């Protein structure tokens, strides 16, 4: 199988084509080459919640699958659903993406399992991409050997988009859902909600469903009505 049978699925709309790069274009180009086997086997991505870490990790998996490679995405934010032994054997997978690495900090069993998994991935030279909300040195990892491993590769921050780029990203997401998002509505969402994409895209999806149910276009007055503002 090209993707491991795990209780995890990739979102079809999480790919490089629908990720507005902004200042991250060089990183995206690097990741595409990295997946094809260029550079060292490991890269660490970090960024504040909502900047697109999860999107990029899943895009890496989608890119690998499109090239006929095996790939797996593991969101450690749902750590309670997984056991450390799920890493056993994953070193045979061409591209492994571990998201929200900060969630294992202080968990002795997970830290040890990840340390050994890192070493196995290094031996196979398959691709390992790890993402977290901060640089490795600020993760409060208790196992020194793991902390040093996490800091040993390329460490890159995902840059936040400007407000203008966020508006463009909202409009692009709307087009993917099959409707046009007026600029004034995008600006309204940007100023009424926290400026991270997980929240903004959730709000956009809710507004889209409300407009379909009411058979009305998305306008600022309609959004105010729906949100009782």
Describe it.
The structure is a single chain. With 229 residues, the chain is α/β, with parallel strands linked by helices. The chain contains eight helices and five strands. It has a five-stranded parallel β-sheet with strand order 2-3-4-1-5, sandwiched between helices. 32% of the residues are buried.
Order of helices and strands: HEHEEHEHEHHHH
Radius of gyration: 19 Å
Kindly report the spatial arrangement of strands forming the biggest sheet.
Answer: 2-3-4-1-5
Structural class given helices, strands, pairing? alpha/beta
Number of strands: 5
The amount of beta strand, in percent, is 5-15%
Distance between the termini: 50 Å
* Major sheet summary line: 5 strands, parallel
Residue share in helix: 40-55%
Mean pLDDT: 89
Task: Determine the number of helices (DSSP H or I, runs of at least 4 residues).
Answer: 8
Can you tell me the overall shape? elongated
Low-confidence stretches: 1-5
What structural keywords apply?
disordered N terminus; five-stranded parallel β-sheet; 229 residues; single chain; elongated; alpha/beta
């Amino acid at each position: 199988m090209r993707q491991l049978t795990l209780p995890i699925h990739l979102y079809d709309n999480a790919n490089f084509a629908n990720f507005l790069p902004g200042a991250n274009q060089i990183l995206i180009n690097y990741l595409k080459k990295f997946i094809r086997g260029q550079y060292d086997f490991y890269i660490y991505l970090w960024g504040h919640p909502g900047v697109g870490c999860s999107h990029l990790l899943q895009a890496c998996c989608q890119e690998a699958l499109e090239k006929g490679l095996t790939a797996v995405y593991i969101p450690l934010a749902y750590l309670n659903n997984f056991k450390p032994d799920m890493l056993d054997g994953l070193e045979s997978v061409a591209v492994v993406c571990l998201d929200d690495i900060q969630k294992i900090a202080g968990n002795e069993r997970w830290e040890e399992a990840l340390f050994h998994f890192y070493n196995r991935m290094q031996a196979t030279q398959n691709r390992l991409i790890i993402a977290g909300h901060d640089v490795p040195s600020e993760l409060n990892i208790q196992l020194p050997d793991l902390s040093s491993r996490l800091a040993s590769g390329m460490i890159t921050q995902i840059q936040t988009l400007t407000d203008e780029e966020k508006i463009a990203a909202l409009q692009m997401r709307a087009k993917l859902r099959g409707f046009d998002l007026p600029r004034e509505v995008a600006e309204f969402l940007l100023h009424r909600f926290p400026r991270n994409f997980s929240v903004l895209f959730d709000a956009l999806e809710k507004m889209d469903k409300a407009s379909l149910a009411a058979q009305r276009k998305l306008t600022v007055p309609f959004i105010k009505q729906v949100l009782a503002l």
